[in-house]
Automatic annotation (TrEMBL):
Family matches, as InterPro entries: MFS (IPR011701), MFS_DHA3_Transporter (IPR053160), MFS_dom (IPR020846), MFS_trans_sf (IPR036259)
Protein name: MFS transporter
Subcellular location: Cell membrane
Major facilitator superfamily (MFS) profile domain span: 1-406
SUPFAM superfamilies xrefs: MFS general substrate transporter
Organism: Kribbella sindirgiensis
Cellular component GO terms, alphabetical: plasma membrane
Keyword Ribonucleoprotein tagged: no
Region of interest (Disordered), residue spans: 410-431
Residue ranges of the TM segments: 13-35, 47-71, 77-103, 165-183, 218-240, 260-280, 301-326
Main location: membrane
Swiss-Prot/TrEMBL keywords: Membrane, Transmembrane, Transmembrane helix
GO terms assigned for molecular function: transmembrane transporter activity
Amino acid sequence: MSSYRSADPTRTYYVYNAAWSFLAALSFTLNLVYYVREAGLDPLQMVLVGTALELSCFLFEVPTGIVADLYSRRLSIVIGFVLIGAGLLLQGLVPAFLAILVAQVLWGVGYTFTSGADQAWITDEIGAERAGRVFVRTQQLGLAAGIAGTVTAGGLGLISLPLPMVISGAGTMLLGLLLAVFMREQNFHRTPREERETFRQMAETLKHGLGVARRRPVVRTLVVISLIAGLSSEAFDRLWSVKLLTFSFPTVFGTSDPAFWFTLLALAGTVLSLGASLLLNRFSAERLQAVHPTGILATLAALDVLGMFLFAFAGNLWLALAALWLRQIADTLTSPIHSGWLNRHVDSRSRATVLSMVSQANAIGQVVGGPPLGALGRTSLRGALLASGLIWLPIPALYLRLRGGPPALTKSAPAGGSPLTNTDRTEVDGD
């Protein structure tokens, strides 16, 4: 079989990432509609599905990483895609709560096998110098393939809602098997013991991160922001589809099928977010590069919560759509501003710790906050959506508290009083 593994690594990386972007869009464009219409999930069950996925990713990140570190990046990626495909296939074939719950666990565990392993593989094969350009090109190809997958999902969904998921699941498993045959791995070296991610290392990172947060109020504030966002977003990101499906969709091109409309909504949201990003870069670039872009981050967070409240109270389809698009635009614009802020100001010694703390705080928030709001949604869907918005409400004020301070953390700064001026908002928006 080794004779088949002669494909160029860069080309392999492009092809399989584009294929996965297409298959992911194929499955996830209409999955929330499927959960409500075909599987009959109620608000609590919708949220528990997301909680199962989040918890699986959180718990299995370390043990599955051992495969990529010790045995093979390729093996880890292959196992991951086979498990993800099995999960997608299961939930498409069996429209029942327990089956979908098991499918989310399979999906989550499979994701942890691929997480980081693919980038580590391509970096090993082509070198760190070339990898940066490859990652940029991969993102472009992935966006194009994702749009194609969204359109295809809409077409297939008009025939049958489960069909896109079934095809995506089978295709993802096939992709994993093809990678087992064609994926070349010539430069793999076992990760040294001291560099491996372990539960002990995770605990030490958490302990160190808590120490940083105690000494530096800015870090503490950003961890709190991430925790609040996680508490709020898990329920909202699952329940908006439930409310949207209570409206009657107008007939366009001879159909009012939700599959058509959810596909249109996904495409429109992407285009609007892209347009807003281009306009902001053109007319307000100085705000994006500000030493402390807390003002614009607070504004975007305020627009986010405004979108939540408008959606919760919306009594017609078009107001609900406008609210959803407002929130999507705010989320899309926030991410690169926060990332740029991080790269300009956080001392490299603290970056990994701060990122880990923020990510863990968000995951904990989603797991803790999702089920209670989902249970509330069983009796009052509007109440659950409003509660999500109320939980999010302090975030703009917390951003404004981060104004001021020196532009960077220096090595000579005293440990007790150093104002760390930034961190990343990784996965703050949940799903």
